[in-house]
Design a protein that fits this description.
Strand content: 5-15%
Largest sheet: 4 strands, mixed
Order of helices and strands: HHHEEHHHEHHHHHHHHHHHHEEEEHHEE
Structural class: alpha+beta
Radius of gyration: 24 Å
Distance between the termini: 89 Å
Strand order of the largest sheet: 1-2-7-4
Number of helices: 20
């Protein structure tokens, strides 16, 4: 009897201790002069997301609109206190002016160390996951690979992939003028071809070869929103030491070993045979040698699209630091994480909007035709693409209405005294985090009138100057903005140019209107693919 009683008391004590651990921060915001949202034990404010009850975008809108007019509010991402920054001026202050206080991302993956220089710790070494001086060194090392100059060198590889896609579908439509396609699958195959060529230096045709191992492993790697991956990320966040000791990583061992071998074999062939392709492998080889340098381009700001983010002084810094082979391999994963899913999904949403707005589709097609005639039969060039103003307006509006990253996060690395200059003063404590609610800001009528209306005219020469800094953030803000914005925009515009030149997009019987978006802690996307009717244009 006494043994049973002791066991019950022990179990209750353990549960009480665990409950204390997961709820001890729940009153964190009570002494702050800001409102806060309710926190559930362990799941925090994000319970509806983790339980897949709402889409990420809808959750951000709920948080953003909960306390209209406030500049900052409090919430909990699981057990971590988060400050949601709603005010554009404070966003600039935190993400740009006082960046040194908010240099890091929320630490999901743990910090790599020298003993983890093996394929099973790749995800900890990608640029996004690095923090502190490791991140500074890697950003300065990689940023020269993403300048306009480097994009020009890589652009032909992308055009070749686009032309190959056109020929494939033109052949399939040889006996008909129209066909139905699942557009996300079509764009994903194109995206994998581009990444294989531009980032990995291999020739892949996923339109003809459904079973190609590169496509298989690439799609497996991109299942970042699966329950298993989310569970692993939460475990790594809450128990970093145990995760390291047990060898837990977001990336499956099979995919880690495949991409590691692929890059090593490619590098070996390049170095032994003197092959130069002007792709990402070549640039990373320069980075390994410490010879990759940032080069400013004349008139670069004038030529680039509105959504392009500019590199900060952190990225332009000249350093004498070279990356290891494992670090080089890890950076190639950025193209799958940032260049595959994001571009194919944004293209899908853009085509969806063109179907809903045939007048916009027609005007964009006319610009495509005008550019094609100006090229006089030659292949599309980087400069010709940058000169397409209406294309940039349509792409910019797509990124406003369908931002792939619903939020941006920053971790406070030392106590920060916030002062808005109008009476709001309090301390953001070291170890807490901030959320920048991108989706909410993009759909706030205060900054973007009639936000539910797809209107590329917002980004015309006459109107884009009215867009307030800090209210349009498709690629983030400050030194930790997206390093690959030029590459993503180049890929997105190139595929739209080539598709519109040969096809028009129309609603089919299977087209889902309105779209049903997937729920949970995922980047924006649809539950199912989007079926679209392609109609072949007259040559």
């Amino acid at each position: 009897m006494e043994v049973n009683l002791l066991l019950v008391v022990t179990i209750l004590a353990v549960f009480a201790y665990l409950y204390h651990l997961i709820t001890k921060n729940n009153d964190y915001f009570h002494d702050k002069p800001i409102p806060s949202l309710r926190a559930w034990p362990l799941l925090g404010t994000t319970a509806p997301l983790l339980l897949k009850q709402v889409t990420f975008g809808d959750f951000v809108m709920y948080v953003y609109n909960k306390f209209p007019g406030v500049k900052v509010l409090g919430m909990f991402d699981t057990v971590t206190p988060f400050f949601v920054i709603r005010d554009p001026e404070l966003i600039k202050q935190i993400a740009v002016k006082d960046f040194d206080h908010f240099m890091d991302h929320q630490p999901f993956f743990g910090e790599p160390d020298d003993s983890e220089d093996h394929p099973h710790a790749l995800f900890k070494r990608i640029l996004f996951a690095l923090n502190g001086q490791r991140w500074r060194n890697m950003r300065a090392t990689l940023s020269p690979a993403f300048t306009g100059r480097k994009m020009r060198l890589m652009f032909k590889l992308m055009v070749d992939c686009s032309e190959r896609m056109l020929k494939h579908y033109e052949a399939k439509m040889s006996n008909t003028s129209r066909m139905e396609v699942e557009i996300k699958d079509m764009l994903s195959r194109y995206g994998i071809n581009v990444i294989a060529s531009c980032a990995y230096g291999i020739d892949v045709d996923c339109f003809k070869d459904d079973a190609h191992e590169f496509m298989y492993h690439g799609k497996r790697m991109m299942q970042m929103g699966s329950p298993l991956v989310i569970a692993k990320m939460l475990f790594m966040k809450m128990f970093p030491k145990i995760s390291k000791d047990w060898g837990i990583d977001v990336l499956n061992r099979e995919q880690a070993e495949y991409f590691t071998k692929l890059i090593k074999d490619t590098v070996r062939a390049r170095e032994s045979q003197g092959i130069v392709r002007n792709d990402m492998v070549d640039m990373l080889l320069e980075a390994r040698k410490g010879t990759l340098r940032y080069e400013e381009e004349e008139r670069e700001d004038e030529q680039e699209g509105f959504a392009t983010v500019q590199e900060s002084e952190v990225g332009k810094a000249q350093i004498t630091w070279s990356i290891s082979e494992t670090e080089m391999i890890a950076q190639c994963l950025i193209f799958f994480i940032a260049g595959f899913e994001s571009v194919s999904t944004t293209s899908m949403f853009l085509i969806y909007e063109l179907i809903l707005h045939p007048d916009i589709q027609q005007r964009l097609y006319e610009e495509v035709q005008q550019t094609y005639k100006q090229l006089d039969g030659k292949l599309l060039t980087y400069d010709a693409l940058q000169g397409m103003k209406y294309m940039d307006m349509v792409v910019s509006e797509t990124l406003r209405m369908w931002p792939l990253a619903a939020i941006a996060d920053r971790q406070c690395i030392r106590d920060y005294n916030l002062d808005d200059g109008e009476g709001l003063k309090f301390t953001i404590d070291k170890g807490t985090c901030v959320w920048i609610p991108i989706h909410g800001i993009h759909h706030d009528p205060q900054y973007h009138p009639n936000p539910g209306e797809f209107d590329p005219e917002r980004f015309s020469d006459a109107n884009k100057a009215n867009i307030k800094v800090g209210t349009y953030l498709p690629f983030g803000i400050g030194p930790r903005n997206c390093i690959g914005s030029r590459f993503a925009l180049m890929e997105l515009k190139a595929v739209m140019y080539h598709m519109l030149r040969r096809f028009s997009f129309h609603r089919s019987e299977k087209t889902q209107i309105p779209l049903k978006l997937r729920k949970g802690m995922n980047n924006v996307g649809t539950e199912e693919g989007i079926h679209v009717e392609l109609r072949l244009r007259d040559s």
